[in-house]
Amino acid sequence: MPYSQFTVEDVVTQFDITLVEKAGIFAKTPEVKISELLEKILEYNVPLALAIASEKARSEMIIAPILIELKQQLSDNISFFSGKDFTVDAEQGLNGFCDFLISLSAEQIFINAPVITLVEAKNDNIDSSLGQCMAEMVGAGLFNRRKGREIKTIYGTVTTGSVWKFLRLEGRVVEIDLQEYYLSQLGKIIGILKSGIDVNIN
Predict the structure, then answer these.
(1) pTM as predicted
(2) What CATH number does residue 22 fall under?
């Protein structure tokens, strides 16, 4: 089955994952200062995206500008992909299209060393999309190992655009932060995304 059909229980059972649910896993992650440009873009885009009320609108008007800001803050040393086929192992169900992938490589033509997977919550239901995100994280870890580029921690996030929930995978342990973050905490959201890059560079 493709990533989108995985439940949390499916991932835990099939890939022998230990699940840890805990509030405040990323609470101490420092905020970053966001650009005035992003503030202005979102000031206009967010009400429009919420009024249109479609996943496509939230993806293009809210999520993509945030990831572009992240890329700029990291001096274009990362790449991100949207709606890209990410088939790693079809026999295990690790196949399908990912909403967004962030890679440690600046190479933008093909996926190389994915480190963060981002899933748009279906029907605004974050919890129902956690299984898909976890499956994509497992897929990213396997992809990196097969490419000879082991990455210690794979991060994941499920978002409606206005609400964000973060996860991380180390070995066979997936931690889910029970705390949710909102666009009013945008500096924190980008700070957590940036920490997912920094921890694997340092």
Answers:
(1) 0.95
(2) 3.90.1570
